[in-house]
């Protein structure tokens, strides 16, 4: 996180917790994965110096994008039923996001159009 004192953890109960390390307090709970019943969170990814966080849970065929400034899921990308991504990652520029498991898929930021599938 840009200010260096926030830690985000994904829990087995599908909840994300945003923690203030300096003050030892919980700033927010993100419950979007819990609502969809998609299992424990198994991947968190973010871009340095930005307030965006991406998550994948174990039983889900989607990944979610969150805004750390307010506990909101601002975008979700649904994948095919058979495709369960294991990791999600931004490129260094923040222009592209990829999800990979059995396949690799890449989307362009802002338009969210998939332009690569391998």
TrEMBL record:
<keyword id="KW-0539">Nucleus</keyword>
<protein>
    <recommendedName>
        <fullName>Pre-mRNA-processing factor 19</fullName>
        <ecNumber>2.3.2.27</ecNumber>
    </recommendedName>
</protein>
<dbReference type="GO" id="GO:0005737">
    <property type="term" value="C:cytoplasm"/>
</dbReference>
<comment type="function">
    <text>Ubiquitin-protein ligase which is mainly involved pre-mRNA splicing and DNA repair. Required for pre-mRNA splicing as component of the spliceosome.</text>
</comment>
<dbReference type="InterPro" id="IPR036322">
    <property type="entry name" value="WD40_repeat_dom_sf"/>
</dbReference>
<dbReference type="GO" id="GO:0006281">
    <property type="term" value="P:DNA repair"/>
</dbReference>
<comment type="similarity">
    <text>Belongs to the WD repeat PRP19 family.</text>
</comment>
<dbReference type="GO" id="GO:0061630">
    <property type="term" value="F:ubiquitin protein ligase activity"/>
</dbReference>
<dbReference type="InterPro" id="IPR015943">
    <property type="entry name" value="WD40/YVTN_repeat-like_dom_sf"/>
</dbReference>
<comment type="pathway">
    <text>Protein modification; protein ubiquitination.</text>
</comment>
<dbReference type="GO" id="GO:0000398">
    <property type="term" value="P:mRNA splicing, via spliceosome"/>
</dbReference>
<keyword id="KW-0808">Transferase</keyword>
<keyword id="KW-0747">Spliceosome</keyword>
<keyword id="KW-0234">DNA repair</keyword>
<keyword id="KW-0227">DNA damage</keyword>
<dbReference type="GO" id="GO:0071006">
    <property type="term" value="C:U2-type catalytic step 1 spliceosome"/>
</dbReference>
<dbReference type="GO" id="GO:0000974">
    <property type="term" value="C:Prp19 complex"/>
</dbReference>
<keyword id="KW-0508">mRNA splicing</keyword>
<keyword id="KW-0833">Ubl conjugation pathway</keyword>
<keyword id="KW-0507">mRNA processing</keyword>
<dbReference type="InterPro" id="IPR038959">
    <property type="entry name" value="Prp19"/>
</dbReference>
<dbReference type="GO" id="GO:0070534">
    <property type="term" value="P:protein K63-linked ubiquitination"/>
</dbReference>
<comment type="subunit">
    <text>Homotetramer.</text>
</comment>
